[in-house]
Design brief:
It is a single chain. This protein is α/β, with parallel strands linked by helices and 470 residues long. It folds into three domains: 2-235, Ribonuclease Z/Hydroxyacylglutathione hydrolase-like (Metallo-beta-lactamase, Chain A, 4-Layer Sandwich); 245-352, Rhodanese-like domain (Oxidized Rhodanese, domain 1), CATH 3.40.250.10; 361-463, 3-Layer(aba) Sandwich (Oxidized Rhodanese, domain 1), CATH 3.40.250.10. The protein has helices at 34-42, 63-70, 153-168, 199-205, 215-223, 232-242, 247-254, 260-269, 280-285, 300-307, 324-332, 346-352, 365-374, 385-390, 427-438, 450-454, and strands spanning 2-8, 13-20, 23-27, 46-51, 73-76, 87-88, 94-97, 100-106, 115-120, 126-132, 176-179, 197-198, 257-258, 273-276, 292-293, 315-318, 339-343, 361-363, 378-381, 391-393, 398-400, 419-422, 444-447, 461-463. Strands 1-2-3-4-5-6 form a six-stranded mixed sheet, with helices on one face. The protein has a six-stranded mixed sheet with strand order 7-8-9-10-11-12.
Amino acid sequence: MKIEQIYTGCLAQGAYYIESNGEVAIIDPLRETQQYIDKAERNNAKIKYIFETHFHADFVSGHVDLAKKTGAKIIFGPEAETEYNIHSAKDNEEFKLGNIVIKVLHTPGHTLESSTFLLIDENGKEYAIFSGDTLFLGDVGRPDLAIKSDVTKEDLAGMLYDSLRHKIMTLPDDIIVYPAHGAGSACGKNLSKETVGVLGDQKQTNYALRADMTKAEFVKEVLDGIAPPPQYFAKNALLNKEGYDAFENVLKKGDTPLAPEVFEAIANNENALVLDVRTQKEFVESHIPNSIFIGLNGGFAPWVGALITDLKQPILLVTPLGKEEETVTRLSRVGYDNTLGYLEGGISAWKKAGKDIETIASISVDVFSNHFKNMNINILDVRKDGEYKSEHLKGDNVQHFALDYINDNMNTIDKDNTYYIHCAGGYRSVIAASILKARGFNKLVDIDGGFGAIKTTDLPTTDFVCPTTL
């Protein structure tokens, strides 16, 4: 028996390759499926099953493509309805894979069809669970992503409580836990950086598995502090439910070099968004007018999903040389399949062609500190709510909204004012500046190094004080 976790850091997502006696099962595959086929062929094995723990919301799974290429059967848990052929398993249904068995445990709560897959080894021992978004290390899946509108998040949270108590916590403590996500995923709020654990440890350390916890307490604690899901979650879930274009077609269309003149013409004629994925420093120093920055060196795919509201938006790319295919691939993982090509030769070719270039003002924290002390300046903090509440600059002209919600907050700032923008380190502030600049906000100054650099100065900050119950 062989189990391999294939972890993708930018999505904080774990897919699984399981092999026994020449037969393979893939659990929650990524969009680019050739890697699984190649791995099986190297091992002289055949992919027999594709197991999906649920309709994923944070990425587009590769199950449809992989089934078409291999003939493998797609297995969902009970209550899964799709527009392509699947086997919707019954609770406790077993699937033979070589010398092992994979048993379906229906564990609704994260979603209605959510299931955990229990691996029973060659000796009949309950060996591991592939828990999807039902159980993470340190947390459980958020229960507010149901596609059906007649099911409330409270309903799902109650289901999740029962699933954990009756299906998961009754299993042996030494069972290995292989979750679908780790820290950085928006599918939970307290995920561990570890990506493999043991059930007994989770029973001791995971707040949601406390033995003395009532259902009412569980519902309250699981729902407390959950931020609204990113706008692309529901759209990705529908793609996973209804199907999508083949990844190879998406890659072929998007991985197309375009000379500057052609690139410019398409941008103008197709109403295409120019997406620049270089580093924030490179973007600040020179970029195509009206282009948006979301760098590959940060949380690229989730930020694309949070900020570009139309999955069908035509996109043109400005990439580091050699990163073109990677960029198209990472966009497709979250359902952005309408990439029309990339700027051949990169920004250097654009400059050589005599095309217009713009910049963003960026200052060091020392210069900012001097401006803060001697001028009446407007500061825009685009960190997350929790970061801002924890500590932020003190002042009457300090304004905050999280980058996630920039599209909803355009009317709260004034195009006639100059704004000094910062996040924690500089990545998100440049994203924010690029979006604002494309919307006509031209008086923007980026603070290099963000709040991390600001904290090294003597500028006044305010700490969050937890309210005391009297």
